[in-house]
Design a protein that fits this description.
The complex is a heterodimer. By secondary structure, chain A is mainly α. Chain A has helices at 12-42, 48-52, 57-92, 97-111, 115-125, 131-157, 160-168, 173-203, 215-225, 234-265, 284-294. The longest helix of chain A has 36 residues, at 57-92. The radius of gyration of chain A is 24 Å and the shape is flat. Chain B contains ten helices and no strands. The termini of chain B are far apart. The chains are: A mainly alpha, B mainly alpha. Chains A and B meet through helix 1, helix 5, helix 8, helix 9 and helix 10 of A and helix 3, helix 4, helix 5, helix 6 and helix 7 of B.
Chain lengths: 304, 215
């Protein structure tokens, strides 16, 4: 439903009023930007030297290395979380009670603990000398739990007849899962899965706590080690690094939206999860949104 | 067990810190999120643009980076010398506001078309339609996603601990640096967070039940 239902096509009076609001709004926003720029330049944060540091090949090399390190941790975490997600989802839907309980407990525990704490605990407890693996493992555990719930929602969204038909053909439980249910679940949930990968990518920045030299950690190092005119270039570094992060995440988000649009075109009768919704606050919201889009009546489901 | 008994005062402070920063940034997120949602559905293009830009930008930025912005850029522009607690709450609140905004906006989408049309046809303005007719009805659909968002906020507050705000993650870090075994420390911290998140989901379930209406 479009939001325009909330107001009529404006008449002459409303047009004038809206224009006044528009002008006031624009002026207020512009004023905010101007104040920010003036204050920043007063403090010397916009001085040429502050931004010139990104012309040094050393700093450029640092940033390139950091992007690579971030992508490396992200790649490992992406693969790890997907593998763990499938395993946990299957375990949670198992016919054996102990397996089901163990998987449920694991998922609930690690989903409700802050990722930062898990990463730190993994690092201190087991992988002190391997910060990349600690980061990747922590990310995999947390996002694996979320992906498992996404996949489970996907399997539940497959029409019941599919499973029944497969059993009627004499397929084994494993065959039903691997060749009938999972492919359809993955297809329905692909946008959500990719959106969760965006969250994973964002969360690689938590690597700073275990001193893994990813993008954010490098930004902090650059900013605190390069002094320009007796000042640390925090503002310029944050702007540059932030742009890189936003660009990376937007590319991945765009992929999710693209796949969602493509999925809408196909007429398989299985609804496609929304791409935009689950890029929510890292956590249960993703699953909730996924279940919500699948729910027959369109009302969001509940979690926890 | 020893870890907790030996350092109960610090643990309590950390727990209270987590609750405090969660509460303060929840309020910021809720108020700002509602305002942004209003912007995004309003008839005024610059405000719509602002809302959209805010949501797109903040949802695609790592929260840790926002903490950096809050601690190193904000004091350069406004309020120099603000306490880390407030700066952390600002970062958390601003980040979460974008999710609240999207939840509210999709909630507005679930209110039947006829409601807004009826409101308009009896001559209500945009603000009146939104405030008196649409938002009260949207509240009901928005409560479950909001519950998830605030649970996520609680978990995200751990990052504030890494920026020298007193809360549970800080306690974990302190204890492991003191040489305690990480496993019991982890379990106690986990328990602390579980208490907060269960309280939140319980509160929201209560709200949900109170606002239940046959539709």
């Amino acid at each position: 439903m479009s939001a325009s239902v909330l107001y009529d096509a404006p008449g002459p009076k409303a047009v004038v009023r809206n224009r006044i609001y528009a002008v006031i709004g624009s002026v207020a926003l512009l004023a905010l930007v101007v104040v920010a720029i003036v204050r920043l330049s007063d403090k010397g944060d916009l001085a040429y030297g502050m931004w010139d540091i990104f012309n040094y090949s050393g700093i450029r090399q640092n940033i390139a290395d950091a992007v690579l390190a971030t992508l490396k941790a992200f790649g490992l975490a992406a693969v790890g979380s997907l593998v763990l997600g499938v395993a946990l989802a299957v375990a949670r839907m198992s016919d054996h009670k102990p397996v089901r309980w163990a998987a449920t407990a694991f998922i609930e525990l690690f989903r409700s603990i802050p990722l930062l704490i898990t990463i730190y605990a993994v690092w201190v407890g087991f992988l002190t000398d391997y910060s990349m693996w600690a980061l990747a493992l922590g990310l995999s555990i947390y996002n694996g739990c979320v992906q498992a719930e996404v996949l489970r929602a996907g399997v539940n969204s497959v029409p019941k007849g599919q499973r029944e038909a497969a059993y009627a053909l004499g397929m084994s439980k494993t065959q039903v899962m691997t060749s009938v249910l999972m492919p359809q679940a993955v297809r329905a949930m692909l946008p959500t899965i990719i959106s969760q990968l965006v969250v994973t990518l964002k969360d690689t920045s938590l690597g700073f706590i275990i001193l893994y030299p990813e993008l954010l950690q490098t930004a902090r190092l650059i900013a605190s080690n390069t002094q320009v005119n007796g000042q640390y270039p925090y503002v310029s570094t944050i702007v540059v690094i932030g742009t890189i992060y936003v660009a990376m995440c937007l590319v991945l988000s765009a992929l999710a939206t693209w796949i969602e649009k493509r999925g809408r075109r196909a007429k398989t009768g299985i609804s496609m999860g929304a791409a935009a919704a689950p890029v929510t606050a890292a956590g249960p919201a993703a699953v909730m949104a996924a279940e919500g889009t699948i729910g027959a009546d369109g009302t969001p489901g509940t979690t926890n | 067990m020893n870890v907790l008994l030996d350092h109960f005062a610090e643990f309590r402070d950390g727990f209270i810190g987590t609750v405090e920063i969660t509460a303060v940034s929840s309020v910021i997120a809720l108020v700002l999120g509602l305002l942004l949602a209003g912007f995004r559905v309003s008839p005024v293009p610059p405000l719509r643009f602002f809302g959209t830009a805010w949501v797109t930008l903040l949802r695609n930025t790592p929260l840790t980076l926002l903490f950096l912005v809050s601690f190193f850029v904000v004091p350069e522009i406004f309020f120099p010398g603000m306490s880390p607690f407030l700066l952390g709450s600002l970062a958390l609140g601003f980040y979460t506001a974008s999710f609240v905004c999207e939840a509210v906006r999709s909630g507005i989408g679930t209110v039947p078309l006829g409601q807004a049309e009826a409101a308009r046809s009896i001559g209500m303005s945009f603000t009146q339609t939104l405030r008196l007719i649409v938002l009260p009805q949207a509240t009901r659909t928005v409560i479950p996603p909001l519950s998830s968002i605030f649970i996520a906020l609680t978990k995200n507050s751990a990052i504030a601990g890494a920026f020298s705000v007193t809360e549970l993650f800080g306690w974990q870090k302190l204890m492991s640096e003191d040489g305690y075994d990480i496993v019991p420390v982890f379990i106690w911290v986990a328990l602390g967070y579980l208490i907060v998140t269960f309280a939140i989901s319980g509160l929201f379930r209560l709200l949900e039940r109170r606002m239940e209406v046959a539709r």
